[in-house]
TrEMBL record:
This is NAD-dependent succinate-semialdehyde dehydrogenase. It comes from Sphingobacterium bovistauri. Keywords: Oxidoreductase. Residues 16-471 form the Aldehyde dehydrogenase domain. The keyword Acyltransferase does not apply. The keyword Oxidoreductase applies. PANTHER family: SUCCINATE-SEMIALDEHYDE DEHYDROGENASE, MITOCHONDRIAL. PROSITE patterns: ALDEHYDE_DEHYDR_GLU. InterPro entries: Ald_DH/histidinol_DH, Ald_DH_C, Ald_DH_CS_GLU, Ald_DH_N, Aldehyde_DH_dom, Aldehyde_DH_Superfamily. Pfam families: Aldedh (PF00171). Belongs to the aldehyde dehydrogenase family.
Length: 476
């Protein structure tokens, strides 16, 4: 491949690493080989952690202006190599090229934001009650950060962690998903070009996710663990990290509701549903999983949604006009098929789609009359399926939406401003989309409640995740 960012090597302590043992990365759209990367060991991971600790001793004392300037340079170089990033991302994740280009912009927005926000990591002066002390606080870097990221957003999920960590004075050891590691390696090349010192950022590639994950979670030199992925894996990592009392921030599974009230703009709700459901073929943590539609507008909404879904173009990500790409692998196809068949057995009907297409492609689907005990009500589908449930009252909609152990994102449509305030406050989720299906923004806090996570990414709160507050008490 003629792409300046494509490299079949790992990156540790400023060195490009090869190995006799490698693993292959497959394009989910064509099932063809993209390339291979070193299948590194726990010992290699430990070396990266040791290098990060050594680098942290000097990086944390680098003037904040210099750290922010380097991160700003990462932003500028990412803009310069935007097309190269997108090409790699579409190859290894399958998402349409237009979505990959959008992800480069989205992920890079966090880099730009934190390059500026890092300069505003303010402490404070505290009034002394008895007047004979000077009390103040300062913010300092946590230390070595271990980051574990998923395959569905192979650049943005890294950028949201790396940028605030670097400006805070932390160093980072990254374990990217083994299905989409080339985007992470491309970012390492950009960081090298931007002047990030050796050891400050390392990328450890491996198929041994459990082994390396445990090392990152238990190594005492690692002061913070940040993870995006399933709740099941997050729980295991949290247990492992507890032994050394690490700082943790987790963005985990979701089961997002999308509520359409009878006073909603139905056409706008359909547009929001398409935007919030079919990005990356429904394989996003904030993807809509359950559609709750008020009885009086149920038929109208389902008909208009079906018509819109039927127009979506399913194709390889490099095909012009592609809107829905493949699922990541056969296991993902099997899960989607299982959810559809379960819903049908319990009385649901298909208005469009419902079919496994060739390879890893699945037709965008609308299911109506879905039973409350269907699997799709309680499990995250992670696929291009719209499951529509009926409700009669506002209270019932809120109860059904909150009837889940997850609480990442929630969406609803209503033209009643008082209802917007009531429902926004009542829904149990970390992020609420009101009359919109797209909610993420670098300047706003991204994260969930309940079993959907701990901590926030983006915004000033995302910077605090990588800093410790130190209190200084000085006798006058």
């Amino acid at each position: 491949m003629k792409n300046q960012l494509f490299t079949q090597k790992a990156y540790i302590d400023g060195k490009w690493i090869e190995s006799d043992k490698t693993f292959e990365i497959i394009n989910p759209s064509t099932n063809s080989l993209i390339g291979s990367l070193p299948d590194l060991t726990i010992n290699d991971c430990t070396k990266a952690i040791n290098a990060a600790h050594e680098a942290w001793l000097s990086w944390k004392n680098r003037p904040i202006g210099e750290r922010c300037a380097i991160v700003r340079r990462i932003f500028e170089l990412t803009v310069q190599y935007k097309n190269e990033f997108a090409e790699i991302m579409t190859l290894e994740s399958g998402k349409p090229l237009t979505e990959s280009l959008g992800e480069v912009d989205y992920g890079n927005a966090f880099v730009e934001w934190f390059a500026e926000e890092g300069k505003r990591a303010y402490g404070e002066t505290i009034p002394s009650l008895n007047g004979n002390m000077r009390l103040s606080t300062i913010k300092q870097s946590v230390g070595v950060v271990a980051a574990i990221t998923p395959w569905n957003f192979p650049l943005a999920m890294i950028s949201r962690k790396l940028a605030p960590a670097l400006v805070s004075g932390c160093t980072v050891v990254l374990k990217p998903a083994s299905k989409t590691p080339f985007t992470a390696i491309a970012l390492a090349k950009i960081c090298e070009l931007a002047g990030v010192p050796k050891g400050v950022f390392s990328v450890v590639t491996s198929k041994d996710s459990k082994g390396l994950g445990k090392e990152l979670a238990t190594n005492p030199l690692v002061r913070k663990l940040t993870f995006t992925g399933s709740t099941e894996v997050g729980s295991m990592l949290m247990t492992q990290a507890a032994g050394t009392i690490k700082r943790v921030s987790f963005e985990l599974g979701g089961n997002a509701p999308f509520i359409v009230f009878d006073d909603a703009d139905i056409d706008a709700a359909v547009q929001g549903a398409i935007a919030g459901k079919f990005r990356n073929a429904g394989q996003t943590c904030v993807s809509i999983n359950r559609f709750f539609v008020q009885e009086s507008v149920y038929e109208t909404f389902s008909q208009k949604l079906t018509a819109a879904v039927e127009k979506l173009k399913v194709a390889d990500g490099f095909v012009s006009g592609s809107q829905v790409g493949p699922l990541i692998d056969k296991n993902a196809i099997d899960k989607v098929q299982n959810h559809v068949q379960d819903a049908l057995r319990k009385g649901a009907k298909i208005t469009t789609g419902g079919k496994h297409l060739e390879g890893n492609f699945f037709a965008p689907t609308v299911l109506v009359e879905v039973a409350d005990d269907a699997l799709i009500q309680s499990e995250e589908t992670f696929g291009p399926i719209c499951a529509l449930f009926k409700f009669s009252t506002e209270e019932e909609a809120i109860q059904k939406a909150n009837d889940t152990p997850f609480g990442l994102a929630a969406y609803f449509y209503s033209e009643n401003i008082r209802r917007c305030q009531r429902v926004g406050e009542a829904l149990e989720a970390g992020m609420i989309g009101i009359n919109t299906g797209l909610i993420s923004n670098a300047s706003a806090p991204f994260g969930g409640i309940k079993q959907s996570g701990i901590g926030r990414e983006g915004s000033k709160y995302g910077l605090d995740e990588y800093m410790e507050i130190k209190y200084l008490c000085q006798n006058k």
